[in-house]
Automatic annotation (TrEMBL):
Domain Multidrug resistance protein MdtA-like alpha-helical hairpin: 130-191
Keyword annotations from UniProtKB, A to Z: Membrane, Transmembrane, Transmembrane helix
Any one Gene Ontology cellular component term annotated for this protein: efflux pump complex
Sequence ranges assigned to domain YknX-like C-terminal permuted SH3-like in this UniProt record: 323-389
Family stated for the protein in its record: Belongs to the membrane fusion protein (MFP) (TC 8.A.1) family.
Name of the protein in its database record: RND family efflux transporter MFP subunit
Pfam families the record matches: Beta-barrel_RND_2 (PF25954), BSH_RND (PF25917), HH_MFP_RND (PF25876), YknX_C (PF25989)
Membrane spanning stretches: 25-45
Species this protein is from: Granulicella arctica
Domain of life (superkingdom): Bacteria
Length: 400
């Protein structure tokens, strides 16, 4: 027998209380809000960290990385080679002294001439006529002088017998003296014109080589104070050659007059020309800090030509020490020659002087020490106080 249940199977079961559901919702919302705040805070912090990292990277990138070298001490060799240009021992243009037309020339460029050789002839028709007139005037003056002398002698003889007055005699003697002066003036004019006429022939003033001929047959030649001088020839004596060399100040005390020097030329490989230090300027050029030295070289065969580029080798005492740097460390500024030196992470522009330029390497006279970090290939914008970073390559090189 089944016991009937008091419970209604179709009856609705009672749910949880309403206040419990509300509490669950609020907890969920709080969790969501907290998660959102955490996400937002994380995003803000991540962005700030990224901005700080970017700022740090930007600042680091703004500091240029440079390679540096230390000036290396070096001992100057007992010989130096300096560039120079050869010059003819005597070099002069030859001008006409009289006006006219060129009749003939006898030497062209490259010709060797001896002192006194006839180089050209000038026709001077106007001068010839002037000379003829002057000679005629001289003859007239001489004739007048002869007459005046005869008259003076006669008056002096007549004065002895009181046949003429003293006044007339003095006048005759004065007239003779005036005529004598006129003769001397005419004679001087004739000598002057003859001297000018002698310049019709142009002679070589010294032994040399004709390096230029600037006239030709029939050329009009004007000479005189009111005309522009016209060069006929250019003559150079190359039996002995001069070479002027700018010697750096550091070697100036080693250059002594009478000392020996040797010349070398690219066109004569392996051949040396012996020379002698003739003189020097005895003053340092403040612009270049060099001493101007003249070296004379005998050139009997004419192998050395004026204007040639040569190297002059001097022997100097082997006792001077200096510092050397690569030439790509130099900065050419309006303030003068400078190098960039790294000190306490900052660039400092230091003025320097060069005692010797060897192309890729220069010897520094003043400005740096052996412990300085000198910047290689400095930028044109490098300025004192600018922050720089020494490259790891340079540091590892120093460690080695």
């Amino acid at each position: 027998m089944t016991t009937p249940s008091n419970e209604n199977p179709t009856a609705v079961q009672p749910g949880p209380p309403k206040h419990g559901l509300s509490k669950t919702i609020w907890v969920g919302l709080a969790v969501i809000v907290i998660v959102l705040l955490v996400v937002i805070a994380y995003g803000v912090m991540s962005r700030a960290a990224a901005e700080r990292a970017l700022e740090k990277q930007t600042t680091a990138a703004a500091v240029p990385t440079v390679d540096v070298v230390h000036p290396s001490p070096s001992k100057l060799s007992d010989a130096i080679a300096l560039p120079g240009n050869t010059q003819a021992y005597t070099d002069t243009p030859i001008y006409a002294r009289t006006s006219g037309y060129l009749k003939k020339w006898y030497f062209d460029i490259g010709a060797r001439v001896k002192k006194g050789q006839l180089m050209a002839e000038i026709e001077t028709p106007e001068l010839d006529q002037q000379l003829q007139v002057a000679e005629a005037d001289l003859k007239s003056s001489e004739a007048n002088l002869n007459l005046a002398n005869t008259t003076s002698e006669r008056y002096q003889n007549l004065l002895k017998s009181n046949s003429v007055s003293k006044q007339e005699t003095d006048q005759a003697m004065s007239d003779a003296a005036a005529k004598q002066a006129a003769v001397e003036a005419s004679n001087a004019n004739v000598r002057r014109l003859k001297q000018l006429q002698s310049f019709e022939n142009v002679y070589a003033p010294f032994d040399g080589i004709v390096t230029a001929r600037r006239i030709d047959i029939g050329s009009l030649i004007a000479a005189g104070q009111n005309t522009t001088p016209q060069e006929l020839f250019h003559l150079a004596a190359i039996g002995q050659i001069r070479v002027y060399v700018s010697v750096p100040e550091v070697y100036s005390t080693s250059i002594v007059d009478g000392g020996e020097a040797t010349l070398t030329l690219d066109e004569y490989p392996g051949q040396k020309f012996e020379g002698k230090i003739t003189r020097n300027s005895n003053a340092i050029d403040p612009g270049t800090r060099t001493l101007n030295v003249e070296v004379d070289v005998a050139n009997p065969k004419g192998l050395l030509l004026p204007g040639a580029y040569v190297f002059v080798h001097f022997k100097v005492p082997d006792h001077v020490e200096t510092l050397s740097l690569p030439s790509n460390t130099l900065l050419f500024r309006s303030q003068g020659l400078q190098v960039g030196v790294v000190r306490d992470g900052k660039a400092v522009l230091v003025p320097v002087t060069i005692s010797r330029d060897m192309g890729a390497i220069v010897e520094i006279g003043t400005g740096v020490t052996a412990s300085d970090n000198v910047i290689v290939d400095p930028s044109d914008s490098l300025a004192t106080g600018q922050s720089v970073h020494i490259s790891d390559t340079s540091k590892s090189g120093d460690a080695q």
